[in-house]
Amino acid sequence: MDSTVTIKDVAARAGVSVATTSRVLSGNPSTSARSRERVRAAAEDLGYRPDARARSLRSARSQTVGLLISDVRNPFFADVAHGAEQAALRSSYVTLLANANEDPRQQDTYLESFLTQRVDGIIIAPQGEGSANLRALATKLPLVFVDRTVEGFEVPSVTTDNAGGIDQAIAHLADRGHTRVGYIGGPFSISTGRARHDAFVDAVRRYGLDSDPGLITSGDFRSASGYAAAERLLSGARPPTALLAADSLMAVGALGTLRRRGLRIGVDVDLVAFDDIEWFSELDPPLTVVSHDAEAMGSTAMRLLLDAVEGGTPSSVVLPARLVVRESSGGTRGGDIRGGAREDVRGSVSDPGVSNPGRET
Questions:
Q1: Structure pTM?
Q2: Which residue from 303, 278, 304 is spatially nearest to 291, judged by alpha carbons?
Q3: Sign of the torsion angle spanned by Cα atoms 206, 209, 211, 217
Q4: What is d(CA 294, CA 38) in angstroms, rounded to the nearest whole number?
Q5: What angle do CA 358, 359, 361 make, to 5 degrees?
Q6: Which of 105, 110, 162, 161 minimizes the C-alpha distance to 128?
Q7: For the segment 287-320, what is each residue's pLDDT rounded down to a tens digit?
Q8: Per-residue pLDDT tens over the stretch 211-268
């Protein structure tokens, strides 16, 4: 396309006025079918491309939204971003993607950048308790929280049923005969860290498991912290017989600790992760997870944001979580639990080299 082609050139080629050409290109319906056909053909022939900056000044819209995720290296947030981006494109919006890197200061840097880029709204997985920049931004632009929330903000959000997911995991481990379940939680400065911790404590109490506080430790939603947390839990005088990690990356770290210690996963120690990653089902043994749809989370957040951009008042959405039981906690490939009732679902991939000896309890 030739950026030097102007709307006047298109009008001359189509044989209509500049005003008619402008109405056709802006989607105004008050034009004849013949005029629309001629203008669009002329624009295509000339390779006309509208000046986005001028158009945004006239319409007060940039057709651009900001998406600020917590950690670009985390596969869960990559899926959230993909879902949001595709939903934006379907509505003719462009997404500017930024990475907070689990750092409130880096978050603020990108929030300021989004303002200078004149985005129409922002989706954010917020860091910490909410900075002054975030509070100021909430009064200026449509804002939607994704995966995480911040207390005191009247902002629509898309989150997961954390309590339901943790409950299913603990019910499953209790059914397996475990009484000492080690928990690798996230930071308390983040809403998901607090919510999943509280859900774990509550579920352990309700299912009558050991409530020893030494069975609870925390990381920072990154694999190195999961490795260190699992090491602490397994080094105690009475180590847990199962581990539940509050996110996928910390589960990867815990997996490394178990392998280094020569423990048989799903036999000596069961392992469950909150969040699923595509290749978790291909591990040896495949990893049991609390699964929730990250792509749906992103696309739903974008739907709420664009609704707000158009002047709507969208309500928050809580998406369901379900336990997918695999061999790391004694299940078969593809088995899942919904509400505590086991349904064995055979996966499409078979691996005769992976045994499923179960757990002696």
A1: 0.74
A2: 278
A3: negative
A4: 44
A5: 145
A6: 105
A7: 999 999 999 999 999 999 999 998 899 999 999 9
A8: 999 999 999 999 999 999 999 999 989 999 999 999 999 999 999 999 999 999 999 9
